[in-house]
Specification:
two-stranded antiparallel sheet; single chain; alpha+beta; 139 residues
């Protein structure tokens, strides 16, 4: 029952954010589509995280502190996927398009923070600092 309530709350939050992003006057002319996907961490991954932090191994955030369920901050997440209009529709040269892509991501993050207050020091900017494999995202 509790899981069903959590799933419903997460679906509701995803719908709220998706509606907000679709109606945003800055994003509307830039994006062709936006999807907000609710995600929940599996019991297996929760168990592995708790096991790793209990043994002092660093978790995915690089921290080895916190062995309680309350210390896991990403039990649920909302993944935002945006598709910009085609280059011809935006009338933006290739190099500038990359700036539009980045700015669109940062603006969407600002919309998220307008709805939900961020935790200080917890936003990871893999756009400004991509991972070695080229992964770029905001967490």
């Amino acid at each position: 029952k509790r899981r069903a309530q959590l799933d419903e709350l997460l679906r509701s939050a995803a719908a709220l954010l998706e509606r907000d992003l679709r109606q945003d006057p800055v994003l509307r002319p830039l994006i062709q589509d936006v999807k907000v996907l609710p995600k929940t961490k599996s019991l297996y991954h929760i168990h592995r995280r708790l096991e790793a932090t209990a043994s002092g191994l660093p978790n995915s955030s690089g921290s080895s502190t916190g062995t309680s369920l309350e210390s896991i901050l990403d039990l649920v997440t909302l993944q935002v996927v945006m598709e910009l209009h085609a280059e011809e529709e935006l009338q933006v040269p290739g190099l500038e398009r990359r700036s539009y892509e980045k700015n669109t991501c940062y603006h969407a993050l600002g919309r998220v923070h307008a709805i939900w207050k961020p935790l200080p020091g917890r936003v990871k900017d893999y756009i400004a600092f991509p991972k070695p494999n080229g992964y770029q995202c905001l967490h």
